[in-house]
Amino acid sequence: MRRTTQKRLFVVVWTRNEEQRDSSKRTYIKLHNSTPINYNKSFNGLEIMSILINNLNYIYMSETPYEKTALSDINIKINEGEFVGIIGHTGSGKSTLIQHFNGILKPTIGKVTINGLDISKENLKEIRRQVGIVFQYPEHQLFEDTVYNDIGFGLKKLGMAREKIEEQILSAIELIGLDNKILHKSPFELSGGQKRKAAIAGVIAMKPKILVLDEPAAGLDPVGREEIYNAIINYRKENNATVILVSHNMEDLARLAQRIIVLNEGKIEMEGTVSEIFKKSDVLEKIGLSVPQITYFMKGLKKYLPDINDNVYTIKEAKEEILNFIKKRASI
Ligand SMILES: Nc1ncnc2c1ncn2[C@@H]1O[C@H](COP(=O)(O)OP(=O)(O)OP(=O)(O)O)[C@@H](O)[C@H]1O
Ligand SMILES: [Mg+2]
Question: Both 69 and 213 in a single domain?
Answer without folding.
Answer: yes
